[in-house]
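hi support,

uploading two proteins for the ticket. first:
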Amino acid sequence: MSPRGHNYRYGSWHDGPDPLAAPLDVRGAALDVGRSMLGGRNVRDAVRELLRRGQRDRPGLDELRKKIRERRNQLRKRGNLGGALDRARAALDQALATEREQLASEDTDQARFDEMLLDELPDSVSSAMQELDSYDWHSDEARQQYEQIKAGLREQVLDQQFNGIKQALQNPDPEAMQRVRDMMADLNSLLAAHARGEDTEQQFADFMDKHGDFFPDNPKDVDELIDQLARQQAEAERLLRSMTPEQRAEIESLIEQAMSDVDLASQMAQLRDNLQNLRPGMMRGQGMPVNGEQPLNYGEAAGVIGELTDLEALDRQLGQDYPGSTLDDVDVEALERQLGSAATRDLQALRELEAELQRQGFVRREGGKLSLTPKALRQLGESTLRRIFADIRSQQQGRHEEPRTGSADDRTGAYLPWHFGSEQPIDAVRTVTNAVLRTAGDERSDDRLRLVADDFVVAETERRSRAAVALLVDLSFSMVQQDRWEPMKETALALAHLVETRFRQDALQIIGFNIMAQPLSALELAEVEPEWVQGTNLEHAMLLAGRHLRRHPDAEPVVLVVTDGEPTAHLVDGEPWFDWPTTPACVRATVRQVDELSRYGASINFFRLGEDPGLERFIDATARRCGGRVFSPSLRRLGEYVVSDYLQARRGRRGAA
């Protein structure tokens, strides 16, 4: 008994969610989605990739589909679909052997004549049974064996179509079979009325009151009843299509004979036509190969085909490769039937993960379109920046501190003694406090407080240079082809996060360029997808960079260029002009913009990706012209180089002056 009077009972865990399972790693999932986007996917595809792959300790859709395929292979090896014919043939041979024994014991001309008839029976089981329909059996046992062939097949066919009919056929007396015939007639009447568009609500209710025991799934309306029947009929159709043409012809003939004996053949044909009319799409499935050794009777074979149909649908649902697909499409009951409750828990975890990404504000859906949120972008930038700082060897670079203190910037919270010539602001409160403490034990003739030089303190301030930074990133398709797209985006987002969180006084503008250049926010860059366009318009990017820098005349101007190709496009009368190989006109236009930025005082540094000789010649010459530097980092270290250069460049010539 607990102190509060509650009783607790403990026992072994049997089933249900794992009580020790780790909680959903939604933040990790958001990072995975973000990284997939940086690699060129849109948000929807990135989320889909996450669900496909799963997380470290949670299987994804791919793992569930793998189990589906394994289960499907097991079923395909379970047995032989021709087993119904094989069993019918064996039973017929047994009946004929019993009949021949009886004929051999009779010394009559009729017995000899009937022996000749049996000897001339065709090899086909269905054809032989057609001829035996009018045969006058001498052995009651043989006749019963023969009738049991048709009765057994009839029971299997009806039980496959109507799950609750087996009970009625356990004692197939005339009264029981009449109930089946009445149900079939009423069912076809109901379906025909529904197909004509009539209101069948009351007719359906009357039908279920009268024949509900044939339908243990208890459909709630006509449409649900039709769906159930159509699925069963589709299984039967797919079973027949899975057989060889000879097997199919034989089994269809046997079924026709079995149903005709009890006046059900026409009703079954009418039911098939009604379902084909009401649910045509469900009847179009292809046959399925089942190549096992064990013979299956009709009911067993139909069950295998039904399970394979379930697995085929589950594989499609879990694949999520069709328009408008969601995890809500997955048939949970079918999944549990095929793979067990653990698979349904895995699916539920993926559903919760997808929902939590939206609920916790990492992705949002607007107008049916998924997009990344600023929260997810911040987390992605923070994660990338943390990795970059871990790679930067110098802690001084990582902390980005100037050793000097200044007079008109942010206070650090520390205080310094005042000296003659100090530029920092005097802290009046702390100065007076020092004077009070110094004179606390003195006797004073008045209330005046006298200050001395040692009482004065100044507030320590931190000199922080301000920079206007233009980060020019190449968006040409070669960046995707050479796997440079993701490192480029990671670098830009890390720099944006650094500016946003530690250097808010700086003004950063990301400019993406291919055939044209455009200013991009960090979020827009994260979501930009590759375009199959030719052209590297560095001139336009430099032009936009100059406009950005001039909007911040009091800041240190910094231009950082990340590219993997020489300029091949420039503006002519405001329109892009592409040439390959690059032309002197394109080079001149680009260099003209570089010169404009140099005259403005901007530091321009280049980060060359790849070993393109044309790019190397152009960048080296341009850097010498503008006094910039050229870096050739590996993709892994691109972010480290760009961030380090930013931290150094923002202390540039104006800050040092």
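and the second one:
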Amino acid sequence: MAETGTVPTAAGDDGSQVSLTRSRLVRQEVSQRISGALRVTSGHGNPDITSTPAREAVIQGRNPIAPAPSISSSTTDVEPDSWDEHDNFRPEQIDLANLAPCRKWCIFTCSCFLQFLLNFDMASVAVTLPSIAKDLQASQVLVFTVATGYFLAQTVFQLPFSHTSHAVGRKYAYLTGVTLHIIGAIVAAASKSAQQLIAARIVQGIGAAGMFTMSAIVIVDLMQPRQRASWTAVSQACGALGNICGPLFAALLFKQYTWRSIFYLEFIAAGVLFAVLLGLLPNGRNRSTAPLKVLKSCDWIGMFLFFVSSVTILIPINIGGTVQPWRSPVVIACLLVGMLSLLVLICHQRDLMEHPAFPRQVFTKSVTNVAFFGSFVSGMLLSMIFYNLVLFWEGVRHLPTIKVGIMLLAVTLSYTASAATTGVAIRFWGRIKWATITGTVLAEIGLGLMYLLTETAPVGPLIVITMLAATGCGMYLPAMINTILASTEREWHSHAIAMRTLLYTAGQCMGISIGVAIFTNNFSYQVDKVSHGSQSVAITPQSLMQIIKDLPKDSEIVTLIVMALRWVWGAAAVIGLLAGIPSCVLKCPALPEDDEVLQLEEERRQAQSSRRRKLLPLESLVPVR
């Protein structure tokens, strides 16, 4: 029997003709793929075939027409998921990975500016909530809904943005989010009632969902895993810088103008960001599949169940014990619907969907799940501490808005410095557990000492206490981010990071809601306990935000506020402990070296290629004589 690729001796044999035809087709396909690969990598025509990656693949015994491993350099890194299960090529990852270094840095700078803008929004609005409540005659629950509505929208719409970006491309999903944020800022600046402001903030939150999610995914698409550690840390530090500048800028703008000027400033900043991203981001998208087909394959049922469960759980937490009694039919019905939809969502994602909205592959390891929970708790602690510190400095210590912003620098500056330093240190050493343990210990000590925040305590020790808690939280967050990156496969990094951002913002929303619920219910209990019909303390949590700046320093209400806030600090310490202990106990893998990552990815791709295609023998490439 003649060998494949050689001319048989029997010229008229049918088998020889088939073998000859097959050999020519193979050589033709190999030649086309070699030429195409060289055009992609070098951009020049008719090169020397002996130096091509395809020839090297033949020498190494690999399939020359299979997808080649990623070419690693400072500007080239093809993501493993650039090839789908049907061997359709996804060009967008290459478009992002092959960008010029200066363009990469510009996109990363925009992502840092975006993180700054979103955190600036959160901090500045938090500081001005008492003024907004007084100006719009809004109750405490209603004015805090300005914040919770924003974070709730930002949470539940991250999944739709993440999934649709695979169909329409990163650029258009990114710009859609920025556009919605601009529209929301314009409407918020012109709001005449609390209801209009809440609606505007929800629109802003939807836009922030796209901005926040796409920023994280684009960074993952650009860089290798170990490089993502430092880049993500710098991005988070820029976001924390927004927390620093937010209270100060908000206080200055409020002093010269009104709280509406904050939204006008956001409109200008987001407009500049839109113009820059429009020119920087490539137009790549998954052209191997029609966008409509990709959208139809998305798990819209899972996203809808997540939306229903999130809304119906947060609403009773916000109104229970204040607007409605905990035993009221509305509160009980919402909680039942929320828990039922959450159970249905878990079953749907685990057993019913082939491609669920919450990919099962990122939840396979215990250490990853604990890190996800740690990210959720990080968002909770940040919002619980930050928003209630505004109540403390304005309602208990009677500081003007500008001085409140200065006092909050102790939190935001410590958080920023510790997060950036920890992220860079993890990038340098590759070890994560030390940051997890140190952050947990410092955060618990600081949160426990916040029990000492009273109306007569010296300011210096109070600042040190808040700095200690913020430093611990700042170290804990990058530790959780890098734990997720170290414990998940590289092809699932974008999904894992998108899930982390979703859980982080969900934690922020839950932290505000739980903080408000604890404070208002305990405050109502304390008022009922000491009032006994006395008009001196005849005040409800609904009206507290409107008069908090006008309370006298020796008012009995101030003491009740301090007692209610102590319950908030204690709850934050317990929640932090629940997340910190498992994080410290479980073994976390170290971040792999970049070269090691590339070697592992090449081995994995070779295994996948051999399973997908029948490996052609080396003799089939010998030319016919």
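thanks. also noticed: Residues 1-21, 34-94, 618-625 have pLDDT under 50 and may be disordered.
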